[in-house]
């Protein structure tokens, strides 16, 4: 990973968590403590975070604010790996033989794809990384929705993708989000939100995948308001007070 990418990832970790330790950053990024300390010094001098002994925290001006730009696919893969794996295993366990499912383009949904049962399924996705998981062929039929390709995230978006999706039906749709606040789901881009909105409209069961860092966070575009039958799959790190609030909108699986 380039230094600029590493710096952006560290800032995003601070923005998501509020505070983060040197050890946590080193483990997630696979670098030495010394490298992390140098990075934190530079980022502090640039005013992108506030350094303290043993870690760093976000600047007050960025905590809880929506992202201006979406983190890269690689950056998102590095964050909250244990939580995402936990969520993915729970979500994948709900898939049954013969289901037709839509898998969105988040890194958590990619982990769902890796944990799907090895039974006959029809999988529809706009994610090239997910498509590549099944490209060699097995019991699961894979359909890739085309459209305008976004290299930054490895996804297909836009009018062509929306048109293709609007004619299909799904037993289950698995959607990752950039944030959940006041019962609304957020993403960083309008075209991503519009595509996921269509996928949810065309699915009988909605499964929203969000680790603790997405809770009470805004994104650029609100694309869906949670309903009583919706299911949010999350991890035990979410505070009980926020879980109680979330359960007033929808079902929650930990």
Description:
The longest helix has 15 residues, at about 5-15. The protein folds into two domains: about 5-65, Winged helix-like DNA-binding domain superfamily/Winged helix DNA-binding domain (Arc Repressor Mutant, subunit A, Orthogonal Bundle), CATH 1.10.10.10; about 80-254, Rossmann fold. The strands form four sheets. A seven-stranded parallel sheet has the order 6-5-4-9-12-14-15, sandwiched between helices. About 35% of the residues lie in helices and about 25% in strands. α2 packs across α3, α5 crosses α6 and α8 runs parallel beside α9. It is built from ten helices and 15 strands. With about 250 residues, it is an alpha/beta fold. It has helices at about 5-15, 20-30, 35-45, 75-80, 80-90, 105-115, 130-135, 160-165, 190-200, 240-245, and strands at about 20, 50, 55, 100-105, 120-125, 140-145, 150, 155, 170-175, 180, 185, 205-210, 220-225, 230-235, 250-254.
- What is the strand tally? 15
- Any guess at the CATH architecture of the largest domain? 3-Layer(aba) Sandwich
Structural class: alpha/beta
Largest sheet: 7 strands, parallel
Strand content: 15-25%
Unreliable stretches (pLDDT < 50, length at least 5) are 61-69
Principal-axis shape: globular
CATH third-level topology of the largest domain: Rossmann fold
H/I helix tally: 10
Order of helices and strands: HEHHEEHHEHEHEEEHEEEHEEEHE
Radius of gyration using CA atoms only: 18 Å
Instruction: State the distance separating the first and last CA atoms.
Output: 32 Å
Protein name: Lactose phosphotransferase system repressor
Pfam families: DeoRC, HTH_DeoR
Domain HTH deoR-type: 3-58
Keywords: Repressor, Transcription, Transcription regulation
């Amino acid at each position: 990973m380039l230094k600029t990418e590493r710096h952006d990832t560290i800032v995003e970790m601070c923005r998501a968590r509020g505070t983060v330790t040197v050890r946590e950053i080193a483990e997630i990024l696979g670098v030495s403590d010394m490298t992390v300390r140098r990075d934190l010094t530079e980022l502090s001098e640039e005013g992108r975070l506030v350094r303290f002994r043993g870690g760093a925290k976000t600047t007050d001006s960025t905590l809880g604010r929506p992202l201006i730009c979406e983190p890269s696919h690689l950056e998102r893969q590095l964050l909250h790996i244990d939580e995402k794996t936990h969520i993915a295993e729970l979500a994948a366990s709900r898939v049954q033989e013969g289901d037709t499912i839509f898998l969105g383009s988040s890194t958590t949904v990619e982990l769902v794809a890796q944990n799907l049962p090895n039974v006959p399924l029809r999988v529809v996705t706009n994610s090239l990384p997910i498509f590549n998981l099944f490209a060699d062929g097995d019991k699961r039929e894979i359909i890739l929705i085309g459209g305008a390709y976004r290299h930054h995230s490895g996804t297909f978006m836009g009018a062509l993708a929306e048109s293709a999706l609007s004619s299909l039906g799904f037993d289950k749709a698995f959607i990752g989000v950039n944030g959940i606040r006041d019962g609304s789901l957020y993403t960083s881009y309008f075209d991503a939100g519009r595509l996921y909105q269509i996928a949810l409209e065309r699915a009988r069961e909605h499964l929203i995948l969000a680790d603790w860092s997405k809770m009470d966070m805004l994104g650029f575009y609100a694309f869906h308001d949670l309903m009583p039958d919706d299911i949010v799959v999350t991890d035990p790190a979410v505070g009980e007070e926020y879980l109680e609030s979330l359960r007033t909108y929808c079902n929650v699986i930990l």
